[in-house]
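W.,

You were right to be curious about this one. When I first looked at the sequence I had no strong expectations either way, so I just let the prediction run and decided to look at it fresh. Below is the sequence, 350 residues in total, followed by the output.
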Amino acid sequence: MLTVRLRYLARRLSWLLLLVTAGSHASSWLSSQPFHTLMLSQTERPFPGDVLISPEGATELVFASSDNAGQQFVIGSLSKQITAALLLRLVEQGRVNLTDRPEQYLPDLPEQWQGRITLGQMLNHTSGIIALNRPLAEQPGQFRYSNLGYDLLGQIIEKVGQRPYAEQAKALFYLCDMRHSFAPSQRHPVSAAARLAPGERERQDGKRVAVERPLPQASVPSGGIVSSTSDLAAWNRCLYQSDKVLADTGSMLNPTSQRPHRWGKLGYASGLQVAETDAGIEYSHSGYVPGYISTMTYYPEHKVTLVILENVSWYPGDMPRVFGIHDRIRNELIRQLASKPISKDFHGQP
């Protein structure tokens, strides 16, 4: 018992020393102390993560375990907004329409799907797709989360764009100055990441084991992109504060379905959740893949990004525990933003 207690105190001390250092990065108006307290008070599980709170025009708040500072992570379902943006760029170029049927591009899809779903429904998870060898789960138009739907969109992006998905993603990352992000491919696998935080998964008995096999290549569009907290903050600036990604972001940001979620009912747009919070509109998503979990939110009225990346996929039988620290950090940020004036440059949804 004494040994366990000493290990717990050592973890707390390690975080305390690191967070005092991180406190030197404090924003001119965000208070770092509540975030320090939140992280130091967690007892349900460790937090091997990297947290970035990036306000426009103010110094960023950075919290990271000593092993993970500045590292790269597989970002899980945050990848979906990249896939959505790549498809919508092709829509803006007039090369594809959201009302198109997926079988127009992938003729080998199951016959029972054909003529029933659109690319737009695949973007907002109302297609009913669950597996290639199974009929649609329900009548198209009802929300049902589908990783496979996004993986198929990745294949459509390759066909329409006439380049591999990884190359199209690379061009977009370059446009947004994301130098530590890439979509893994056979030529450039996950293991090629220069600063990848090694992924682990937690078993039901609480033991953590290394994840040796990354997601299959076909799953990159739905959950396999590699990035970092600073690159994802750059992505949000590029998407929400410029026209580099899309000339008109309405088709990406306007919710067209509703998702039941632990935060309540959320609107779902294209690879993004949309909610009205005390801090105003929030665009968000989380991710969970073997070895990694993630959360990213953006508050356009304040031009503030939150990114949380971890290199442990905690046992999924208790999702409030898995994402508990993420949710409390999010809630504290909303609390602080709610007491601050809206950005002078905000004139409605971007």
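Here's what jumped out at me. The longest strand covers residues 280-289. And, maybe more interesting for your project: Residues 2-22 form the longest helix (21 residues).

Coffee later to discuss?

I.
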